[in-house]
């Protein structure tokens, strides 16, 4: 039994909030496997620029994506101070490199609003909606969209 | 003490079916894959009853029955043959080889057990 | 019952084995095997399938198998001769039986009309046409045909209670056949009111008693509602081993002469002297082990031959358990590497004891690995056996005559590799028949036997499995291939291509040489798919062809998908691994050995042999140019077929076993990279596929990332 108050309410979704490229994002906690520090990945040949490489996660080889780069934002510079959110996306395990994890939110379904027109088209397609919390606008990522189809994989 | 049966069939499916059916019916079952295998196991198993298929490689059911009857390990053990057909000629051959009776495949637990009861103390 | 195995699953597994035994046997007969054993084995395979199918009430299968078996029985009995046309029909029926079982396994059925057509064709070929409906095979529930050949159906059924008197005297042969009169009497009595009279007049004088003989008889008087037929059915097993006489009063008339035919047995000895009453002899009970020590086993010859010819004992193990073992082994190898690394950096390093222990640990873990891999290894025979059918069907569809010859079927390969080889191999075989072999008329014209031969062979060669598909057809028409490639825009019209390069065009996506699209190759699978499937197994495909003499496709595969011997090296600041099995030599070339061709291509002159020179760091896109001190070591590696290439690297670290970790699951396939591994320090290193590296060239294809795990 979990003691946290909102977890028992089926209407409440738990979201992991984080910052990268100066913006706030969140993803559903159910897709998060673990959060870990940066370790130097092995480079992958001919990979898209946002693919940082692969790391060993308890015997599994897991690719690391720079989320900011993936969203078309300024890529992360100082990687040593950043964190990797290991997420299960469809049947794959992928590490998302972000600046920092900020919060775990409990948000009712009604608290998730449609994506406003302020994002670029490329970014919008990867968002499910936004959450406003303490006057911050937090973008809810559609993780399935982070893994590109083959045609723009090398873009 | 439950009745100990040596069941001989070259078909894995049949062996497994015999094992499951006979075990569920409360018998003690030892399996063999063909006549030679059955004969080899006979002294150790000392069965109260032998169930055997007729058509098998290496040594068929007829050969097995003749060998058991001619040997001195268990020459008078009841032997039931498993036949796919109820063809009279096969039965007659089996009988002449020394079979005690027969069971027609496919069998269910009831027919299997009731036939065993006809020739052995259950 | 806990853990009861699903019988139906067992049946299907067994049916598969039986089907391949059936096919193999038929093929053996086709090539002239005359042994009765072969025909018997073929008969038995169909017979066992029928038996199993009957147990699961798979009626169409039972019917088909029964009629199939009837033909085989005639072949077995010599009424039919194994003529080519009959064998063709038998093989066709065997293929169809496989289809029926396959359908049944998936819970469906084949088209009943097709079933009928196939079996009718066989029966017609066997001269057994005019299959009559009433001959359709039906399992009888339990034998109820009467003893002594009496037509029991002629006997009226009794409905009222009546008095029946039976006299019954077993022969001595009855005891020899395992009968016990006690059980018969019990069954005969049932719940009726019974009077039994023992006739012991035949008992011998004291001292003359032989427990093997029969001295007793019984007269049983029943008040019963059971019919004569039911009563006699009790004795059906003992028929021929007893005297039996039934006399019924009232409703049921006795049978014509009142006695049952005397069986052809020597009459029991009759001794008239009176004797004390003894219980009926019970010689039935089998002597238990103490009476029959194993040493006096009655069939020593039989036992001995079982030991020499019988299969070695085996166990069936859930494949998941073996896979788990392989996983754990992978962890073991990684931790062993970590331990070695830690010790090498500790003050204790260099001590003889530590060194020796580490060495032993390494050897042990290698032995465990080899043993585990041996568990997973299986002969390629079942896979090869399946290809006979492919050749039959492909040649029939293409109007060609072809025969498959297999070699090295006992070569053992990892189970997973075997499973994943089925599709590419099927396609290669089809391709050989379809595109490789000429039509019979053409072959005749040029003086070849009309029947083409496709040879499939497997062998272990320097730590890899090599599988070849060789046809004796016309070979690759290189002008035509080049022409098509140009038409399809796969190569520029002015391209200068070597014969090997032209052959390699066949593996390009979208290439097909068939001018007329045949039913078989119109399936949208090309050799490019074969190539990528083999690459997915860490293998490579090579092609060689001699005009007019045929084409050989060669697959080279690793022995296992779990561990390989790797050479760890550095390039462009990255740690990478090369499979040791591909390495021919490493050298430190001087400037004189290197030559430039055109603007960018370099070759290395190794003892007079010019090898393409590739900078691994650049080929993988990690750098554009070499800095001083980089690329000073060259590793010469094998290329798919006979050739070699030279790889420039920055430094060699060491050689060790590495555990293969797939990249496909979480990322995708990368050109030039076979897989990844985890090193002793926990970091990831990519395993380079050298044969692929050369193909990348200056314009690397886009990696198919994030797509594999759909």
Question: What does this protein look like?
Answer:
The complex is a heterotrimer of chains A (155), B (122) and C (710). Chain A has a single domain (5-146), classed as OB fold (Dihydrolipoamide Acetyltransferase, E2P), CATH 2.40.50.180. Chain A is 5% helix and 47% strand. Chain A has two helices and eleven strands; from the N terminus they run βββββαββββαββ. In chain A, strands 8-1-2-11-10-9 form a six-stranded mixed β-sheet, with no helix packed on it. In chain A, strands 3-6-7-5-4 form a five-stranded mixed β-sheet. The N and C termini of chain A lie far apart (46 Å). Residues 1-7 and 150-155 of chain A have low confidence and may be disordered. Chain B has 122 residues and is an alpha/beta fold. Chain B has one domain (4-119): Response regulator (Rossmann fold, 3-Layer(aba) Sandwich), CATH 3.40.50. Chain B contains five helices and five strands; from the N terminus they run βαβαβαβαβα. Chain B has helices at residues 12-24, 35-45, 61-70, 88-97, 109-119, and strands at residues 4-8, 28-32, 49-53, 79-83, 101-104. In chain B, strand 3 (49-53), helix 3 and strand 4 (79-83) form a beta-alpha-beta unit. In chain B, helix 2 runs parallel beside helix 3 (61-70). By secondary structure, chain C is an alpha+beta fold. Chain C folds into five domains: 7-135, Up-down Bundle (Four Helix Bundle (Hemerythrin (Met), subunit A)), CATH 1.20.120.160; 149-276, 2-Layer Sandwich (Alpha-Beta Plaits), CATH 3.30.70; 319-377, Helix Hairpins, CATH 1.10.287; 380-558, Heat Shock Protein 90 (2-Layer Sandwich), CATH 3.30.565; 563-705, SH3 type barrels. In chain C, helix 10 (319-344) packs antiparallel against helix 11 and helix 12 (381-398) packs parallel to helix 13 (415-436). The radius of gyration of chain C is 37 Å and the shape is elongated. The interface between B and C is large, with 57 and 62 residues. Chain B: Residues 4-120 form the Response regulatory domain. Chain B: Pfam families: Response_reg (PF00072). Chain B: This is Response regulator. Chain B: The modification 4-aspartylphosphate is found at residue 53.
